[in-house]
């Protein structure tokens, strides 16, 4: 099923790897079904922009509690198909909706990190009947999206993203300044080129149109990182977020605390 070129992207663990055909695409999922995975709606994990299912590797075995857990490689990432176009937010919504149809899953609990949270919010807005509940991890709620878009167009547009302060806030407290990763990023010549697709998607009018709907009654959890430089401050009247230690990469900075928060929230959802 998987070519030899893809196998390095698919390490073994407490999951199995699946390719699902949806909208003429092959989308890769890492799937865990503890106890058969029949104890509630499946949990679908959506990674941040440019990340893959691997960013959820620490949480997959911690979240089950009888539910199926599905960690997705979105279009163009990991072991999923790459296409010349189809990366705007409405395309992502269509991909996710088609994925649920292909899996014969009536509805899911969506957990989205960063840009994955925006994708999850857009799916809940367009197809609320398919979303049992929504967890936004280091992701802006819809009223804050304009600020998130401005930040992507500004501070992340150039080399300022590579300052030591931003690197530490992004990666958490365990990244020493002498790390080869930090040194490589400081010397990296092309941040503007690398961030261009994300900026284009964030600034495209279709992004806001995909989120512009009437009220939706979807139970929602907001989780923020204490040292996240990427999100605007919560507005007055916005839901109070759960704040966890770490930088923007919460699924890797604080997986145990994040898993405990998500598990408690899942258990609190009405049957």
UniProtKB/TrEMBL annotation:
- Which molecular-function annotations from GO does this UniProt entry contain? hydrolase activity
- Gene3D superfamilies linked to this entry: alpha/beta hydrolase
Q: Which UniProt keywords apply?
A: Hydrolase
Which InterPro entries does the entry mention? Answer: AB_hydrolase_1, AB_hydrolase_fold, AB_hydrolase_sf
Q: Which Pfam families match?
A: Abhydrolase_1
- Using the record's annotation, list all stretches that form the AB hydrolase-1 domain: 42-143
Q: Can you list the GO cellular component terms from the UniProt entry? A: membrane
The name under which this protein is listed is Alpha/beta fold hydrolase
């Amino acid at each position: 099923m998987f070519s030899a070129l893809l196998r390095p992207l698919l390490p073994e663990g407490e999951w199995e790897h699946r390719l699902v055909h949806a909208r003429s695409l092959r989308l890769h999922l890492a799937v865990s079904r503890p106890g058969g995975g029949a104890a509630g709606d499946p949990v679908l994990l959506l990674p941040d922009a440019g990340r893959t299912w691997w960013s959820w590797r620490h949480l997959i075995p911690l979240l089950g509690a009888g539910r199926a857990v599905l960690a997705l490689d979105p279009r163009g990432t990991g072991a999923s198909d790459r296409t010349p176009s189809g990366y705007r937010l409405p395309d992502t919504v269509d991909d996710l909706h088609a994925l649920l149809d292909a899996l014969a899953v009536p509805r899911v609990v969506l957990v989205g990190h960063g840009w994955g949270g925006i994708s999850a919010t857009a799916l809940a807005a367009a197809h609320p009947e398919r979303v049992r509940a929504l967890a936004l991890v280091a992701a802006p709620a819809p009223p804050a999206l304009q600020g998130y878009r401005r930040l992507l167009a500004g501070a992340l547009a150039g080399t300022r993203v590579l300052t030591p302060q931003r690197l530490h806030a992004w990666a958490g407290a365990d990244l020493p300044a002498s790390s080869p990763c930090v040194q490589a990023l400081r010397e990296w010549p092309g941040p503007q080129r690398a961030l261009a697709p994300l900026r284009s998607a964030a600034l495209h009018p279709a992004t806001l149109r995909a989120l512009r709907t009437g009220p939706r009654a979807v139970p929602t959890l907001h989780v923020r990182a204490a040292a996240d430089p990427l999100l605007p401050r919560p507005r007055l009247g916005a839901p109070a977020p759960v704040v966890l230690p770490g930088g923007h990469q919460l699924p890797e900075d604080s997986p145990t605390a994040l898993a405990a928060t998500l598990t408690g929230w899942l258990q609190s959802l009405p049957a």
